[in-house]
Design the sequence.
């Protein structure tokens, strides 16, 4: 007898539907899997057989052939364990084919017959949207984000009982169901609880003493989606500032939240409590990170890199000068395109990668940044260090500022600093203005759109012209200042043309190469 | 020698006849401290006023003051001083600082607000410097003053802008149990607070210590009063510390007055790039003792006091005394080659950067206008620009630092910095600004 069970496998960040065809025939007992399975799939033979025995099901002592169709595509992952097991049961006549009519299965089997979730359940569920989908109880929340009718079970034995109609599907509050959602039938992602402030990092901007300029830089970067570079000696609070950055950003819009959730699901990261990742992710890879880990790829199993895991949020590169030049330069194209195309011999895939890059680095190898008396680096060493950030990469940063150690008076604290929520409110309002301009954030305003969508007032234009004439501003720098000034104006709540004071502040915040050369320059 | 028992506070309400008459004389139109000394030389104030009124005073051969003296009502003056709670101190009477007795330039009348006995029996240090100080200078002045006061040293200064104010602010800020109270000598009348931005500090100093002036009530600030005030600061002190001084700056008067009195002069080293340190660095080249912190100053004070005690205990004839005095000051303060007691500094060759002549020239044109100040007069700066100008050093100053020092908003500070760069008085680098 033959059975064909729908299931899906991951290709990049997309789910691809496959059919698991099982044929049980007379002959010497045996179990073969064909159709380009990878190692994990081939090993599923042993897992499926053991799970059968542990669940009290009888293994057919006949010849079992499994084909994964379409057979030309390479299939990986352990999510095919469950459809294979179901296929064997149906083909062996243990389960009525009507019980699995129009039903897809995704899940990994344990030797004890338990059902386990698999990475990428969100996108797999999307690919199987037209079927009733059965997944491990642990994946229920993720699967529901993908849509369709979802049923869960935590063991193979219980699943078979339910499919045969011997047992009801778990009801809400059932201990077998670890699904937090009250009513699975009416649950839709839209009614998911909004992530509240309490679910944030718990670190507040108010904890930071002084650093008014750096705070402002964070605010402007958050409001305009500008990439931000912090240069300063160790202990000046660069990391502290960066850690507080994500909380300034508003919740992700639904479409981005889905993208982020998919990428995280594909990478096998633990899902958010509500299933959907609504807060901008914050990724801070170590400077030893390899190009593949940063960009994505991998020889046997394609995996999204750090830049894609930071999609919709922040990629924080601490000690940026210590990253290898290959890794840093690999960032350039994704920074421009907002996505990354990874090609390998076995295929290619595109991952989303639109993030705010926050870099932090010391101004020189010893960290003191040329402060007279404190810095032990020669000028050539400083220059070499500064060159680690190539010109094109440095050009991507709209904002770059010096962060110095706070002074004693500030540490001992006078007055209260603004809290994250106060700043986040301004940021949210400013972002709304950018949306009215037809872009998500001002950083997306291209040079050609600037004059039309973000005009400068006469005084501001004159000031910019003066800066360009005096050679202080290049053509590229001009656009950068223009964009930044628009964000500053948005933060001030200015609807009309960008004013002179906004441009002045932008001039202050803009990124300049000399910043990396320390303060001894004269 | 200083009396062992400090005199009691002079009761404020009751001014003696001599005191009221001395105040009246000082308040006569056209009266200066120098003329007042002449008028009171050998006369009691009561007698002197009578003689002036009668036009028979030998100190006033031109009978300049006769008419004014006849018009002035002594009771009215007395009431004004009582109301202002200003004490009138006369040499040799209660309250007059003992270290001014015997000083060649001792004021014939000294006005005081606060407790005039403060300097008595305590070590005293003058902390002086330029009015357009850098942040570095103000910081050093304030730290030095605060630590010295805590160590029981009376800090004497001029309550001016810049270093003087910073020193007094340091004393007030660091006031702990047992700290020495501050002493100020101002050039204006004790009812005229100058600069007005220091008014809070002014009353604080008067409340905790004492503010002296030789000018009568109502005297407005004018260039003449400040160099004269500086000699009193020097005369009141065991050691003079110059924190920052421009080339030919006014605080060099204090240094010179101190050197003339064999009072050791110390100077705080500054950056050779900093114009605010040109004068003080020149003092170091001339051989003044460099000081880095309060300990250095304490050492200088104790050396000065032991040296003076030895001289006073030494009954040797004056020739020998003068020689030893000379060598003591040479060795300990290095200030001597330019001036032995009684000699004029002008006659001393070989001290090029700060010769008396140049300083006097600067004095005539108004001590207030030092290099930077004069340069910026015509700029017509806005308020934020002025504040930013004061906050930027001669060495690169980070924007965050400017923010901290000025307390301006980010746009305001950015605009002020950029405008000052456009005006050509600041230079900017990546994230920093400095004076040109």
Sequence:
């Amino acid at each position: 007898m033959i059975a064909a069970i729908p299931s899906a496998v991951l290709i990049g960040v997309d789910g691809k539907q496959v059919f698991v065809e099982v044929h049980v025939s007379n002959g010497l007992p045996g179990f073969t899997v064909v159709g380009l399975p990878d190692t994990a799939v081939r090993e599923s033979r042993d897992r499926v057989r053991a799970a059968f025995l542990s669940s009290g099901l009888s293994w057919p002592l006949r010849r079992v052939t499994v084909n994964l169709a379409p057979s030309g595509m390479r299939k990986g992952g352990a999510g095919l364990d469950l459809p294979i097991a179901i296929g064997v049961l149906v083909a062996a006549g243990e389960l009525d084919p009507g019980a699995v009519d129009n039903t897809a299965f995704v899940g990994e089997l344990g030797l004890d017959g338990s059902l386990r979730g698999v990475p990428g359940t969100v996108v797999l569920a999307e690919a199987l949207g037209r079927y009733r989908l059965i997944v491990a109880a642990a994946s229920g929340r993720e699967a529901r984000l993908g849509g369709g009718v979802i049923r869960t079970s935590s063991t193979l034995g219980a699943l078979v009982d339910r499919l045969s109609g011997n047992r009801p599907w778990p009801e809400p509050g059932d201990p077998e169901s670890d699904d937090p959602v009250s009513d699975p039938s009416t649950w839709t992602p839209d009614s998911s609880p909004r992530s509240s402030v309490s679910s944030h990092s718990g670190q507040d901007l108010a904890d930071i003493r002084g650093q008014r300029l750096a705070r402002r830089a964070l605010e402007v970067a958050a409001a305009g989606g500008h990439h931000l570079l912090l240069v300063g000696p160790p202990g000046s609070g660069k990391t502290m500032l960066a850690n507080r950055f994500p909380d300034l950003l508003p919740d992700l819009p639904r479409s981005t939240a889905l993208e982020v959730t998919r990428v995280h699901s594909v990478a096998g990261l633990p899902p958010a409590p509500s299933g959907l990742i609504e807060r901008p992710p914050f990724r801070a890879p170590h400077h030893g990170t390899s190009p593949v880990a940063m960009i994505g790829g991998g020889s046997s199993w394609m995996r999204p890199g750090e830049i894609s895991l930071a999609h919709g949020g922040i990629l924080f590169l601490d000690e940026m000068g210590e990253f290898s030049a290959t890794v840093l330069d690999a960032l350039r194209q994704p920074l421009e395109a907002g996505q990354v195309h990874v090609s390998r011999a076995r295929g290619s895939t595109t991952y989303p990668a639109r993030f705010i890059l926050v870099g932090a680095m010391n101004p020189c190898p010893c960290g003191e940044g040329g402060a007279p008396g404190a810095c032990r680096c020669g000028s050539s060493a400083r220059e070499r260090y500064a060159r680690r950030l190539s010109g094109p990469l440095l050009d991507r940063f709209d904002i770059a500022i010096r962060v110095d150690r706070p002074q004693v008076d500030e540490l001992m604290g006078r007055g209260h600093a603004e809290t994250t929520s106060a700043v986040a409110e301004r940021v949210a309002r400013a972002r709304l203005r950018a949306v009215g301009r037809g872009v998500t954030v001002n950083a997306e305003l291209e040079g050609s759109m600037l004059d039309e969508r973000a005009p400068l007032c006469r005084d501001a234009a004159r000031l910019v012209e003066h800066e360009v004439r005096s050679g202080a501003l290049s053509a590229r720098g001009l656009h950068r200042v223009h964009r930044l000034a628009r964000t500053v104006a948005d933060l001030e709540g200015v609807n009309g043309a960008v004013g002179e004071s906004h441009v002045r502040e932008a001039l202050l915040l803009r990124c300049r190469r000399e910043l990396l050369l320390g303060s001894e320059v004269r | 020698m200083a009396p062992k028992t400090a005199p009691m506070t002079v009761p404020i309400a009751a001014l003696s006849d001599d005191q009221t008459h001395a105040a009246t004389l000082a308040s006569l139109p056209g009266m200066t401290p120098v003329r007042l000394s002449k008028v009171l030389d050998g006369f009691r104030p009561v007698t002197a006023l009578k003689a002036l009124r009668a036009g028979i005073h030998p100190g006033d051969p031109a009978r300049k003051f006769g008419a004014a003296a006849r018009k002035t009502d002594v009771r009215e003056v007395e009431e004004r001083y009582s109301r202002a709670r200003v004490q009138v101190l006369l040499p040799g009477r209660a309250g007059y600082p003992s270290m001014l007795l015997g000083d060649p330039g001792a004021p014939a009348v000294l006005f005081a607000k606060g407790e005039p006995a403060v300097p008595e029996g305590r070590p005293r240090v003058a902390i002086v410097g330029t009015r357009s100080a850098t942040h570095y200078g103000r910081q050093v002045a304030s730290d030095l003053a605060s630590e010295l006061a805590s160590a029981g040293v009376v800090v004497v200064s001029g309550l001016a802008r810049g270093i003087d104010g910073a020193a007094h602010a340091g004393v007030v800020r660091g006031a702990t149990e047992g700290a020495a109270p501050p002493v100020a000598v101002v050039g204006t009348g004790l009812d005229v607070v100058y600069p007005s931005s220091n008014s809070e500090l002014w009353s604080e100093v008067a409340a905790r210590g004492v503010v002296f002036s030789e000018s009568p009530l109502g005297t407005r600030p004018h260039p003449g009063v400040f160099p004269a005030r500086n000699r009193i600061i020097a005369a009141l002190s065991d050691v003079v510390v110059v924190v920052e001084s421009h080339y030919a700056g006014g605080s060099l008067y204090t240094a010179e007055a101190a050197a003339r009195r064999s009072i050791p002069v110390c100077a705080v080293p500054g950056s050779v790039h900093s114009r605010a340190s040109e004068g003080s660095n020149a003092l170091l080249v001339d051989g003044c003792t460099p000081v880095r912190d309060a300990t250095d100053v304490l050492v200088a004070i104790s050396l000065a006091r032991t040296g003076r005690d030895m001289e006073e205990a030494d009954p040797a004839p004056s020739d020998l005394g003068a020689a030893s005095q000379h060598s003591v000051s040479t060795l300990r303060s290095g200030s001597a080659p330019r001036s032995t007691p009684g000699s004029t500094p002008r006659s001393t060759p070989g001290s090029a950067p700060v010769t008396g002549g140049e300083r006097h020239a600067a004095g005539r044109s108004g001590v207030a206008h030092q290099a930077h100040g004069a340069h910026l007069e015509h700029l017509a700066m806005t308020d934020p620009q002025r504040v930013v100008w004061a906050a930027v050093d001669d060495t690169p100053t980070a924007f965050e630092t400017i923010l901290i020092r000025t307390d301006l908003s980010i746009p305001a500070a950015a605009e002020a910095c950029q405008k000052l760069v456009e005006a050509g008085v600041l230079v900017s680098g990546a994230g920093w600004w400095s004076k040109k």
In short: Chain A touches chain B at residues 210-214, 216, 231, 372, 401-404, 407, 409-410, 466, 501-502, 504-505, 507-508, 512-517, 519-522 (CB under 8 Å).
